[in-house]
Amino acid sequence: MLGSLLKHPAVRVLPRPAVAWVRSYIAGLGLYFGVGGAWAYYTYWVFGDVLFPKPGSMPSRPAVFAQVRVAMAALPLYAALPAAVEAAAEAGLTRAFTSIHADAAGLGPYWLLFAAYMACVELGVYWAHRGLHDWRAGYEALHAKHHIYNKEHSLSPFAGLAFHPVDGLCQAAPYAASLFLIPCHFLTHELLLFATAIWTANIHDALDGRAAPVMGAGFHAIHHTTYKHNYGQYFTYADAAHGTLVTPAEYAAGRRKGRGRVEE
Question: Among residues 43, 159, 168, 262, which is most buried (max CB within 10 A)?
Fold first, then answer.
């Protein structure tokens, strides 16, 4: 269906960056509502009585609808990043390559480059996210829009893209910037950009999957509560290296003992 739409005469006359934007926007819509909807359906309606036994611990419908409105306002600008990076790659401005065997000399070098690229992305996302907290004016102008969801009962999979659009671009920018520094298979890069839509739905459901060192929802819910811990994306390593990591177990113990470093 998407392929047929992009071949429509009205679309084919558009410049290539505009077609890339249309493709990215439609894919983003599909992922946001498809993944978020399925996640919310099973999390709240199918298994809600098991996962959220405490009354009032699930997000309200008005909270979820508000998150969707914020995300929909930001999605057009989010879709511009993949389109811009695609144009830069086609112009030869990035270090992207298209063939694993011809350009990366096989799967072994490909995986090494992938690991280096993801390490660069992880560190970049950590500092972009932390910077939006440490820079007070930036936090108030941009990131505070996302942090109104600051308790377990106000978080949902639909909060994952509910950012000020510039905030969302700042946190996605390391994916693009890393492509100018480290060789990466271009299709892998694009899939990773869209994988963040799936991942961010997961980490905003406030359920602790106990999968450390993966930075799951248990860690990210702490970030939304304390505002000063667990800035990382997929893994806990950057937070551990910079002294900002608090595990769900430490947070629970800290609240019981009143330790200052994890207090709200």
Answer: 159
Taking alpha carbons only, the member of 20, 18, 17 closest to residue 28 is 20
Structure tokens at 145: 């829009």
159: which residues sit within 8 A by CB, 6+ positions away? 67, 146, 149, 204
Residues 6+ apart with CB under 8 A from 196: 172, 175, 233
Chain segment 13-59, per-residue pLDDT in tens: 668 878 889 999 999 999 999 999 998 898 888 888 888 888 888 88
Closest CA to 215 of 199, 197, 195, 198: 199
Backbone angles phi, psi at 58, to 5 degrees: -90, 150
Closest CA to 178 of 101, 83, 89: 89
- Predicted TM-score (pTM) of this structure: 0.86
To 10 degrees, the CA torsion angle through 258, 252, 229, 74?
Answer: -120
Long-range pairs for 34-38 at CB < 8 Å and ≥24 separation?
35/157, 35/197, 35/198, 35/201, 36/156, 36/157, 36/158, 36/160, 36/201
Crossing angle of the two packed helices 165-179 and 107-134, in degrees rounded to 10: 150
Proportion of the chain in helix, strand, coil states, percent, rounded to 5: 70, 0, 30
